[in-house]
Design brief:
- The complex is a heterodimer.
- Chain A is of the alpha/beta class.
- Helices cover 33% and strands 21% of the residues of chain A.
- The radius of gyration of chain A is 21 Å and the shape is globular.
- Chain B is of the alpha/beta class.
- The radius of gyration of chain B is 22 Å and the shape is globular.
- The chains are: A alpha/beta, B alpha/beta.
Chain lengths: 342, 359
């Protein structure tokens, strides 16, 4: 029995037989820009209350575009379509733009990578966090003030009453990220989207922020969609994991399933690329080449040009996302690879 | 044989006026930093925001002027050099920055960007410059046919390679790498780290490698210097720093480095607090307010960086009054042996397949 089994017991404290509430559901979500083929090419999402789903991918995977599409933060020439798009049971029309906008901030909120770019530099942080309360919940200034102090405490900002009067540039990176999280959670949204929330932060602050988000998820029952390319963060907090490459899902499953049994060559390559103690003195296992540009997508499997296991079929036919075991899907003609190599 | 680089007592202080009626405040961002680097070795300067590591990197090339101290490169103190002689020395020390976008002129074709330093220092006759640019591009893994393109046409990882090619154009002996891979995706980080290691082995380069990423540092460094709030708090050979760190901040950094193996090691206690502002200096140890091993004498005076007793004492230095008596350190458990059999088998297949492809 490996140590992975002990980690697997982490999230089974829900009483048996209680169905998890699905708060966000999307089927065949496509995101693109007018006049061009879709960039995010038909992905499915199902987020349950109180769960942590990590969307893993690198630049050019379409992960940020997915998040921005859910938040309706894309420019006017963006096109979003889905067979189904539902937040907390509210079914959104085919073109969900207007409906999503009404829900933003209230039912679904987002935390960005660069807090300095996302915060208004000429408003105090207290004012910025109070704004959604006064707008979406119709609170008075006085009530909003108290609510802000309370949420600042919740995100562990010391001296909340004084800090409220600060401007973003007066705070450290870690503090600004806490303010962003406070702003996102103050309306108690059902869904929180965190796009690389720790990438711009120091490593000791990163672990504080990851734990904070994880703790709040548990405390508030929020469904969290965390976008990251850091597998170590995924290892620490994820329930579910979705791996994206060039706009498509290549593998999805629970954290335990994927860490124990990584099936897609791209997933394997990501794991292999992390520097390890034994690697000292050896070359790191890098993936050659780069992500295809969306203007020039290869036919068939989009990872085939970089895949060391690719055969002729991979370059011709797109592998569908199919279940390998219950809850664990992969899109690859040759997974598990050891069955095909002999 | 003397060291290639000897840094002695390097310091930098910024003054800030507090406004019309407030006193001028001083921020000592780098305090009395000293270290040495031999040819072909890599000195990793590790620290977080506000530690002073970027300032130190720039002071080595005098892109920022030190307020005190010496930077002795191959026997010559750069700090004392007049500008004309400094330019000649700059051929021998180069720098690569974190942001490949900002360091490349968007209006200059990349072939020209690499050629500029060759022409400036007259390292090749004019007719041979083109061939040399092609050679350098191949050396860093770029296709020479792309020399006529502009920087924005390349990805982040490729732009970093262009910056490396440009740094190599002057055939330096030392390259200061300021967070060269932090802004890159994981798999591209691995490519660039491999490249830096290869170049070091092939060309005998020395690196001052500035980073906050312990995993990458562990892969490249010969010696590690840990910076906290402008001071070196621990210096030693890379193996010992990672296996037996003796400063509580070094331990904290290592503990915070996430492990990609779920359940690999017990979750360390949450790390509280943040580094102090350089305007507010305490009289004692700067780290004591966050230190889990803090004792009474820690606030009395700043502990000096001094050799740790034991084998090869001169190689290990720690600035902690209680370095000798810290509890044993539990090392990182991200070893592949903790992953499943299937995982390891497939990784081997992946590595073999890659090798077969490049053969």
């Amino acid at each position: 029995m490996t140590d992975l089994q002990t980690a697997a017991t982490r999230r089974t404290d829900a009483p048996a037989g209680v169905p998890a509430t699905v708060v966000l559901e999307a089927r065949q979500l496509r995101v693109g820009f007018r006049g061009a083929p879709p960039i995010v090419d038909g992905i499915d999402l199902s987020l349950t209350a109180g769960s942590m789903t990590c969307l893993v991918g690198e630049s050019g995977s379409g992960k940020s575009l997915t998040a921005l599409a859910l938040m309706q933060l894309l420019p006017p020439n963006a096109e979003i379509s889905a067979d189904l798009l539902r937040i907390q049971g509210t079914r959104l029309a085919q073109d969900g733009a207007a409906a999503l906008r009404a829900l933003r901030g209230d039912r679904i909120a987002m935390v960005f990578q660069e807090p300095m770019s996302a915060l208004n530099p000429v408003m105090t942080v207290g004012e910025q966090v109070a704004e959604p309360l006064m707008r979406h919940r119709g609170m008075s200034r006085r009530t909003a003030h108290d609510a802000v102090v309370a949420v600042f405490r919740q995100v562990q900002i010391p001296g909340p009453e004084e800090r409220m009067r600060a401007y973003p540039h007066q705070l450290s990176g870690g503090m600004r990220q806490r303010v962003m999280i406070a702003m996102a959670l103050v309306c108690r949204p059902a869904v929180l989207v965190a796009d690389e929330p720790t990438t711009a932060l120091d490593v000791t602050i990163q672990s504080q922020i990851v734990r904070l988000i994880d703790g709040l998820r548990e405390e508030l029952g929020t469904a969290v969609l965390m976008i990251t390319h850091n597998l170590a963060v995924v290892a620490e907090v994820a329930d579910e994991m979705i791996v994206m490459y060039a706009g498509r899902v290549v593998e999805r499953g629970s954290r335990e399933q994927i860490f124990d049994n990584p099936l897609h060559p791209y997933t394997l390559a990501l794991f292999a690329a992390m520097p390890r103690t034994e690697d000292r003195g050896r070359r790191l296992a890098a993936i050659g080449g780069q992500v295809p540009s969306f203007a020039a997508m290869p036919p068939g499997c989009r990872f085939a040009p970089r895949c060391p296991f690719a055969i002729e079929r991979c370059h011709r036919d797109t592998p569908p996302l199919v279940a390998h075991e219950a809850g664990h899907d992969v899109a690859c003609w040759r997974a598990p690879i050891e069955d095909y190599l002999s | 044989m003397s060291a290639l680089l000897e840094v002695r007592g390097l310091s930098k202080t910024y003054s800030s006026s507090g406004g019309l009626f407030a006193r001028t405040r001083k921020a000592r961002v780098v305090k009395d930093v000293s270290f040495t680097l031999d040819r072909g070795q890599t000195f990793a300067l590790v620290g977080e925001s506000g530690s002073g590591k970027t300032t130190i990197g720039r002071m080595l090339l005098r892109l920022i002027e030190p307020d005190a101290g010496a930077v002795v490169f191959d026997g010559t103190d750069l700090v004392a050099l007049p500008p004309t002689e400094l330019r000649a020395m700059r051929r021998r020390i180069q720098i690569i920055f974190q942001d490949p976008v900002g360091s490349l002129d968007p209006r200059v074709r990349i072939g020209e960007a690499i050629a500029q330093p060759i022409r400036l220092h007259r390292l090749r006759p004019p007719e041979a410059v083109g061939a040399r640019v092609a050679e350098l591009m191949s050396l860093v893994g770029l296709d020479p046919a792309q020399a006529s393109r502009f920087a924005h046409e390349f990805s982040g990882g490729q732009r970093q390679r262009i910056a490396i090619a440009r740094a190599l154009a002057v055939e330096p002996e030392l390259i200061v790498c300021d967070e060269p891979v932090s802004a890159l995706d994981l798999s591209i980080q691995a490519q660039v780290v491999n490249l830096l290691a290869d170049l070091r082995d092939r060309l005998g380069l020395a690196y001052v490698f500035i980073s906050h990423d312990m995993a990458v540092v562990r892969h490249l460094a010969t010696t590690v210097g840990v910076l906290y709030a402008g001071r070196l708090v621990e210096v030693g050979p890379a193996e010992t720093i990672f296996s037996d760190p003796r400063h509580p901040y070094t331990r904290m950094l290592l503990a915070a480095t996430p492990s990609p193996v779920p359940g690999a090691r017990p979750r360390p206690a949450a790390i509280e607090g943040e580094p102090p502002s350089p305007f507010n200096e305490s009289s004692g140890c700067n780290f004591s307010s966050r230190c889990p091993h803090r004792q009474h004498d820690c606030d009395a005076a700043a502990p000096p960086l001094r050799p740790l007793a034991g084998p090869h004492p001169a190689q290990r230095q720690v600035a902690c009054l209680h370095a000798q008596t810290l509890p044993p350190f539990v090392a990182l458990g991200d070893s592949e042996s903790l992953m499943s059999d299937r995982y390891r088998r497939r990784l081997t297949l992946l590595r073999d397949a890659r090798l077969a492809r490049t053969a």
